[in-house]
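Data availability excerpt. The first of two example chains:
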Amino acid sequence: MLVAACNSPALGNDPIRRSGATVEIGEMWFGYPEPQAARTHFRSLSRAAFGNTWPLAADEALVGCALEMPGRTVMLVVAGQPWSLNGQTSSWAAENLPRLSIDGEKRWVQHGPIPASWVKPHSEIPGEFMSLLPLLEAASRMGCLAGRQKQGF
């Protein structure tokens, strides 16, 4: 059973459950030499739920952010590795060197383009990859993109 902690007052602190290993997502740490902590919240997303629009090679991933810093902390976690999901987060991560607590270990949030090996090839356009827009839309519905929160997620 995979358990991803959902640390959001709006969503409660109930864990997200799905099959597989257990993973706990905790605080994000950033800044040097005096690290600061920010609460995070993540949602489990899967190929089964997204169907043909699922952009990743992996069957499951976590998408989330630190709600106190929407827009610049949008992250994707695949197989325990956190990565910046948008350009604003990538720029912010390059400056602030954030670490995300996963399974009790502080892991660096990678920045820059998401590895091509993580993204599925586009089935209709040779040489192109699937769009990550469905993941960004999920992040938006969670309130991770400033001013774009939608109801019902």
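And the second chain:
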Amino acid sequence: MVVHDPCLSIDRFSKGMPMSRDIKTIKKEILDQFRAMDGEAKDKLPKGWLEDEYLPVLDFFERQDFEKAVRQLAAKGFLKLQKGPIPVLELTEKGANLIH
């Protein structure tokens, strides 16, 4: 019996994503996405990016680390978090200053 392991998926390689993410990497990727969209205070990450591109490639443990990373960024004042099935991440003024 062959078991498909999403951690070994060729799709992760084709998208240029690392095989395993830690909390630090996830925080960097979130802030990099805001940076790529030239984010300013009160800008929100597009739900499509989170829902369609980012979250689906995370394994169970990375998904837990994603939640921790978001809570840490919010606790430091870089993001505001609106919880839900797909979280809404809003850049704060402090976060905007960090990425620029």
